[in-house]
Amino acid sequence: xxxxxxxxxxxxxxxxxxxxxxxxxxxxxxxxxxxxxxxxxxxxxxxxxxxxxxxxxxxxxxxxxxxxxxxxxxxxxxxxxxxxxxxxxxxxxxxxxxxxxxxxxxxxxxxxxxxxxxxxxxxxxxxxxxxxxxxxxxxxxxxxxxxxxxxxxxxxxxxxxxxxxxxxxxxxxxxxxxxxxxxxxxxxxxxxxxxxxxxxxxxxxxxxxxxxxxxxxxxxxxxxxxxxxxxxxxxxxxxxxxxxxxxxxxxxxxxxxxxxxxxxxxxxxxxxxxxxxxxxxxxxxxxxxxxxxxxxxxxxxxxxxxxxxxxxxxxxxxxxxxxxxxxxxxxxxxxxxxxxxxxxxxxxxxxxxxxxxxxxxxxxxxxxxxxxxxxxxxxxxxxxxxxxxxxxxxxxxxxxxxxxxxxxxxxxxxxxxxxxxxxxxxxxxxxxxxxxxxxxxxxxxxxxxxxxxxxxxxxxxxxxxxxx
Length: 468
Hints:
The chain is 31% helix and 25% strand. It is α/β, with parallel strands linked by helices. It folds into three domains: 3-148 and 275-343, 3-Layer(bba) Sandwich (FAD/NAD(P)-binding domain); 162-272, FAD/NAD(P)-binding domain (3-Layer(bba) Sandwich), CATH 3.50.50; 347-462, FAD/NAD-linked reductase, C-terminal dimerisation domain (Enolase-like, domain 1). Helix 1 (15-24) packs parallel to helix 8, helix 3 (47-65) runs antiparallel to helix 4 (82-106) and helix 3 (47-65) runs parallel beside helix 6. The protein starts with a strand and ends in a 6-residue tail after the last helix.
């Protein structure tokens, strides 16, 4: 029987990062992955393939709608090759997952393919799809088994016409009418992909706004832009049934007045969030407690109820974000090594990779009002920037929320081109507890999208933006 200092169950962004950091810190490390490729949901059927399709579909849409105004003519017209687009996505995924395999070898991490399940708190049985099971011993274990798509109890996912994001990423055809249940990140990103490719898209959301966990202004702006792009929204609608009738899917819902509304289309994407995945783990054999939400219970050190076993990422409480899982993987590795790392969960940014992108960090206005925090807001429209006009990306804004008395930045919210990259400046600023005036005093290159950050900071400081 092989023995390890640390065994990691799951090779997603939390698991593989934890394994690498453990190995860097001198621990003999093993990683166990259920599937034949490494990288978990994010790299295989999540973050990476969805961004590949978002990028490809953006090129297609730009070619159809925007090239002519740039003086570029395509005389023979534009033809969509969805098969080629999916093949490119698959190549990106394959290259990325093979990169993880390379990193495992580079860091001398032993990899096991199969389902990892506890026999007790220090022994893990690994059962491959084919071949015999084997058991390894580990002084410490990190559970990083991630999540899977959630559904509603009355919906039967047939993986053909009533599908999750996993199936939609490899669909191979453009739906006539894609109905999306859920106005969160995944539904909006994939809805936009197929709208660009020519599908009619309807988003059905239970809440009164899309991306409900983000700042209300961001919800309003993104909805406005996506409606302009042709996406239809049915907000404050509670889905009651989803049925397949021949080649058609019928959704029945109630609007906010209690009136029944029907939606018909050829595909229905069920995108109502994700749930922790602990199937086959046999957590109880190791004394690891799981709460009624399916999450593994952990303390501030991310230790489970069994002190030598830790859990990270989507399987524990908090936002289901790849970078949050990676941060936790590093945190646990360094904790095991006797170091004193820290994570500030308030400073983990959230991003929606639609176009325009949406990015956020810290508190929203709604949260500050609820907590009775006195604040001031600075805002700047992207359309006022020379860089935005030059690229044609004029939708969106930057909003900075600062403490009314101390001027410390409490939250930042962006809708616009490259918002996912721009938010990093504000995460750094907030990590160092910078004031809005600090940002206002820093020179920003011209012309850039990030000038909007400085202008919003100027507005928050003393209402003195230059370009609006």
